[in-house]
Amino acid sequence: MKTCPDENIVIQLGKEDKESTVATHFPCSCIGEGESLFISFKPEKVEVARDQLYRPIQSRDKYSVFYIDTIGGKNTKQKNLFRNNAVKEFKYLCVYGEKGMTVKEALKRDGRFIDKLDDFTLTDNKNPNCITEQKQKVDNMDKKKFKICLPRNKRANDSSVSSNNSPQMGDTTPAVDEAQQRKIRAAVQKRGISVRAAMEKSGNSVDIGEIYEILRHQFPDLKTFMETRFPGDSYQKAVNLRKENFGKIQQSFSEVHRVRKLLKLGESVCKVVVGDVCQGTGFVLFGNFILTNAHIFKDCVEGQKLKGGIDVYFLFNYEDPEPHTNYYYFELAHREICYTEGYLDYAILELNPESQKSNHTAKTEKMKVPPGLLKMFGPMPRDGEACIIGHPAGGVKKMDPTVIIEKEKREQAVLDHLHPYIDSIVTLHSISTFIKDQGIENIMIDGNKADKVVTYDTFMYHGSSGSPVFDAHGRVFGLHTAGYPYRLENSVNSVIEFAQPLLTIFEHFVRMLKEGRAKELLKRVEKEVKENSVLKKLFKSVVELKEEQVKAEPAEPEDSSDSSQSMDTD
Q1: pLDDT (tens digit per residue) in 444-455
Q2: How many of the other CB atoms lie within 10 Å of CB of 60?
Q3: How far apart, in Å, do the first and last CA atoms of the chain sit?
């Protein structure tokens, strides 16, 4: 019988050809019932055995099993990550680690990665925005798939950096922890959003001929309906009218005094980075408090507190593209969060003004938290001009002048958007079905959100959740929240987007403070709004309610359980 050292063995996990491979020391408790293993041999070493061979096998719940993509991520092109390139025959390396172990420890013990893989991060295949540092625990990585990413100008097999290059303390500002800086830089450079990334996944095996046959029966009625809305050349006339109306909006926001005012107000807008989970946009509400969307903290909150291990950063002045970017950022003051899911979808957190750091290592001037926008809140307009300022795609700050779509015209706006696809059976039907499944009917006439949101068309999605929406007078009236997107070929588009009314959010926030007996914070809010007659009146109407009325009034119970599945813009 031919024998082979364990170090030269390759084990395929499961019957699916070349899907994943496990190490020779992979715990048998992590192999599913009835799952097959296929063993082959290589002439050269594939892995190096370590002390794991002598550790007792534990139950499955004690391990986290995750997958490393054999195609590397950022800065890994033509760089060696594995001890033997034979593993690249597979899509993934299946790696395990006892809960409590770090990512670096798990990969080093695995034995199939190069010894000098010292400086790396992992990005989630489903959500490239999610960055996992090598020192993080493996506890929450079970069943997830990742790519290895390397820092810029750093090869996987480079020698260790000399200790003489360690960070030095500045005269006035301490040097920032290197791992933390890497995490911030990675978040700044990330593009795209988690929800949209999920849309890229497609593992269905379908009979295209059967689909076409079904659609041919359904398509005539849909096409006839579209054509009745635009007989003759009326579609082109409608497009020309929209261009004319948008031209007026652009003209309004081209006035220098308006632009100057918006740019000044935009200084209070920041990029919000939620650890390796998500990113969005936010803005200073008042003092050191930041307002953004609640959905960017999904699964990160217990009660009214952020879970342990979730780091949050607020990046200001991120306006210039690389390599000239010059931002500064703050950390959380504490883990308490005013968190409201459902209809209003908002979160308020407090930053620590003393934690301010810059992306530059040289000593920098201490920056102050920009002014809050609470005192600029105004009513939600029915129509007219609007401008959104945020960080779409996690990139530099941008502004988008747009037109408010009245609720009576929302259906028409969607049909306008779909009209170019009228002769494409599959495309038109697929988009229509997809946005309907997301709950787009909720914002149409008679929908349960028809009067509760303001709608518009914008490119500001992919990371812009939580952006402030301004009217032509510089008042902030909306919190840019979500939309109804679809994927077509290599791009994601949205038929319509919407914002939550800030006056409603303000009223709800004040009511929560009153119910929580947060007297000091209520006094601060009252002081902030004293020059804003609309907010002052609203504040007074809430705080002067009798205690029993406050307790008896539910906080939008019918909306909290809303079944709408509109896609978040983060």
Answers
A1: 998 999 999 999
A2: 15
A3: 58
Cβ-count burial of 3 within 10 angstroms (0-12 exposed, 13-18 middle, 19+ buried)?
exposed
Helix axes 234-253, 256-265, angle to 10 degrees: 80
Helix (H) or strand (E) segment spanning residue 28: none
State mean pLDDT over 129-148.
88
DSSP 38: E
Q: How many angstroms separate the CA atoms of 49 and 51, rounded?
A: 7
145, 66 in Cβ contact below 8 A?
yes
Q: For residues 258 and 466, what is the distance between their CA atoms, to the nearest angstrom?
A: 22
Instruction: Give the residue carrying structure tokens 């102050």.
Output: 368
Q: Tell me whether strands 92-98 and 20-22 are parallel, antiparallel or unpaired.
A: parallel
CA distances from 453 to 448, 449, 458, 506, 508 (A): 10, 6, 15, 15, 15
Q: DSSP label at 377?
A: B
Mean pLDDT, rounded, for 455-467: 87
DSSP at 317: -
- pLDDT for 477: 98
Q: What helix, strand, coil percent values describe the chain, rounded to 5?
A: 35, 25, 40
280 or 252: which leads in pLDDT: 280
**Cβ–Cβ under 8 Å, residues 226 and 419:** yes
Which pair of structure tokens corresponds to residue 548?
């029993």
* Structure-token match 């530059």, residue found: 360
Q: Is the Cβ–Cβ distance between 293 and 568 less than 8 Å?
A: yes
Contact present, 68 and 97 (Cβ < 8 Å): no
**Token pair for 520:** 């000091």
SS3 36: coil
Cα Rg, the chain, nearest whole Å: 27
DSSP state of 367: P
Q: For the residues 499-527, what does the mean pLDDT come to? A: 93
pLDDT at 454: 96
Q: With contact defined as beta carbons under 8 Å apart, do 373 and 476 qualify?
A: yes
Can you say whether the dihedral through the CA atoms of 473, 478, 479, 481 is positive or negative?
A: negative
Neighbours of 76 (CB within 10 A): 17
Check residue 158 and report its DSSP letter: P
The pLDDT score that the predictor gives to residue 58 is: 86
Higher per-residue pLDDT: 461 or 258: 258
Q: What is the pTM of this model?
A: 0.60
DSSP state of 421: G
On the question of a cis peptide bond just before residue 323, with omega within 30 degrees of 0, the verdict is: yes
Does 47 have pLDDT greater than 50? yes
